[in-house]
Design goal:
52% helix, single chain, alpha/beta, 333 residues
């Protein structure tokens, strides 16, 4: 039995707390909001995880020092926009060599850094890892079969994450490609927004399939140019995660996109979804990365125009369709 703290009590943090408890571990869950901790401790349910019961043995706390001290593993599950500031506050309580697993998805807009890089900057004494893949909290929390990937710089760290998380309903592979895992996990949310917009416009399966496929192409081109491994982008943490995020009723990114396609503004859509829509925060970073690495990403460009420049969604879709003619596979000269 391992001692594991979940830092962040959103749907994903609570789903993983339930999973790890079922795996026989001693779980503490932290939030900086005492009222949230009290509600979860009292009701033993999360309002956005229908059908999931939080075991009585899971300990809730708003004391960060308590959550970070004497733990075998820390799981950082706050929204990506709060990763750096949360890590900075955690730092004084984190022991040398402490394993911290990032389970959020995003890119820091101001620095274009992945989340584990932010954690390493703020908590240099820690060993970082990432857990990612097609894994909606609503399904993991009730034990539906799910497969993810644990990435780390050191093989033994990834294998320890694999050992702690793996169960008959949660299979975990390992990978050394933390960069590729995080790029795919963060930027697929931007493509999911586009897929949702297409649904909101009343487009069909042909459009969805095209957006998913060309979206994978865009993310792969960028990720490989940045130093990620090509096989990562055809695997669970990019292609698999992209498929589920573009198609699922649980996807907050797709659902926000649907509303935007129906005429809502970005702000109105985010308010209606009432959860953090990571793709909105990653869209500008994705565009900046495409320019930095000189990679063509027309879907990402279109999403940015709709979100931040007020371009009508129908017009953006038309522009994607009538772009200059090109090939899918280069011709041999």
């Amino acid at each position: 039995m391992a001692r594991i703290s979940i830092i962040g009590t959103g749907t994903w943090g609570i789903a993983l707390a339930i999973l790890l408890h079922r795996n026989g571990h001693q779980i503490t869950a932290w939030s900086k909001f005492p009222e949230e901790i009290q509600a979860l401790d009292t009701t033993r349910v999360h309002p956005n995880l229908k059908g999931a019961q939080i075991p009585a043995e899971i300990v809730f706390t708003s004391d960060l020092q308590q959550a970070c001290t004497d733990q075998d593993m820390l799981v950082l599950a706050v929204p990506s926009v709060f990763t750096r500031e949360t890590a900075a506050v955690m730092c004084p309580y984190v022991a040398e060599g402490q394993i911290i697993v990032n389970v959020s998805k995003g890119i820091e807009e101001s620095t274009l850094k992945i989340l584990t890089e932010q954690i390493e900057e703020e908590i240099p004494q820690a060993q970082t890892a990432v857990l990612s893949g097609p894994s909606h909290a609503e399904e993991v929390s009730v034990g539906m079969p799910t497969i993810c990937v644990a990435g780390a710089w050191k093989k033994e760290v990834a294998e320890l994450v694999q050992e702690y998380f793996m169960s008959p309903v949660f299979r975990v592979y390992t990978s050394p490609d933390m960069l590729g895992i995080e790029i795919g996990g963060a930027l697929k949310n931007v493509i999911a927004l586009a897929a949702g917009v297409a649904d909101g416009l009343g487009c069909g399966d042909n459009t969805k399939a095209a957006l998913i496929t060309r979206g994978i192409t865009e993310l792969s081109r960028l990720g490989v140019k940045m130093g990620g491994r090509a096989e990562t982008f055809s695997g669970l943490t990019c292609t698999g995660d992209l498929i589920v995020t573009c198609a699922s009723v649980h996807s907050r990114n797709r659902n926000a996109g649907v509303l935007i396609g129906q005429g809502y503004t970005m702000e109105e859509a985010m308010k209606e979804v009432n959860m953090v829509v990571e793709g909105v925060y990653s869209a500008k970073a994705a565009l900046a990365l495409s320019k930095k690495y000189e990679v063509s990403m027309p879907i990402v460009e279109a999403v940015n125009k709709v979100l931040f420049e007020g371009q009508p969604a129908r017009e953006a879709l038309t522009e994607l369709m009538v772009r200059v003619k090109t090939n899918e596979v280069p011709w041999e000269e």
